[in-house]
């Protein structure tokens, strides 16, 4: 029947015309495909009725199962979202107190109420409400806290500062604000600065409620701490010689320490500063020092203020309310001995490091070492910060309470490095 030739390059490709046999084969294949499709169509359209019902029933059943699974998934998603929202509130402090419980003071409920942000959700933090600032551990002392918040609005506050301090020492810090007037104590006879630094303070201007001692004579007979033995006697005893006259080699003189500072010392922070004598000595040298203290067994805060100095009423478990790298000097003595696990001291040391500027001085003043292991632990901790040791002395002091016995103390002046 002939052929068609196609020249490609120098060769020729030839395609033979279709023969009768090949055409028949093609027709047979087409017929097979059509007949197969028709048979399949017939099989689906001519199924028995009961079979159709069975398929419909199964389909309906499957749809129901899928619907139930979808509903279950949606309920799980909703539950998870609620749990996440609750966790977020707990982390942000939204749910630290259950104000629905009975015997909760109404003022506490009002203070802890959430307030919507005036402009809606904050785009940066995602917070939609203002939450009252109150310590998370207050939940453990809810009854005492409710007692603290029971008062007459716009009336005089109860004489309960010792109750507030008890809450602070239990970790309920900060305390909630109150809408009452603190008891006024007439401050008659305050001396002008700088005479106030060393002039004896009148007992009449201090608050003695909640304290075992009611006068300075009682206080000066007590050993309130290792640094506060007779520390309220500014006229006699050793208090007016501290930091200018050494009793042992672990006592550094204040002028010697100031001479070690690079860039000068202008502002400082004293941790556990007793009656404020360190701040007084610094004030004589035109250095402003804030003294951290609580009124443990004595009116420390009022006494320090009466000397014309700055007391900060705060426990050492509270993060220091200062910005980073602001102090030229941090002074710490027995207040650094927080006890408990080493991690507790680490948290405190890192916060001290945070507020101390690069090149600033950390003065560790006669820290009592109960044993050699504690001294090694403290030494290893200090070395982790990479401070330069300007002075480092381990010495002994006679224990006035136990005659003939000497205690071991560590004193050091350390300079904070400039970290990259």
Automatic annotation (TrEMBL):
GO terms for biological process: methylation. This is Methyltransferase type 11 domain-containing protein. It is found in: Endomembrane system; Membrane. InterPro entries: Prob_Methyltransferase (IPR053223), Put_SAM_MeTrfase (IPR004159), SAM-dependent_MTases_sf (IPR029063). The lineage of its organism: Eukaryota, Viridiplantae, Streptophyta, Embryophyta, Tracheophyta. Residues 70-97 form a coiled coil. Keywords: Coiled coil, Glycoprotein, Membrane, Methyltransferase, Signal-anchor, Transferase, Transmembrane, Transmembrane helix. It comes from the Eukaryota. The chain crosses the membrane at residues 24-44. GO terms for cellular component: endomembrane system; membrane. Belongs to the methyltransferase superfamily. GO terms for molecular function: methyltransferase activity. It is a single-pass membrane protein; Single-pass type II membrane protein.
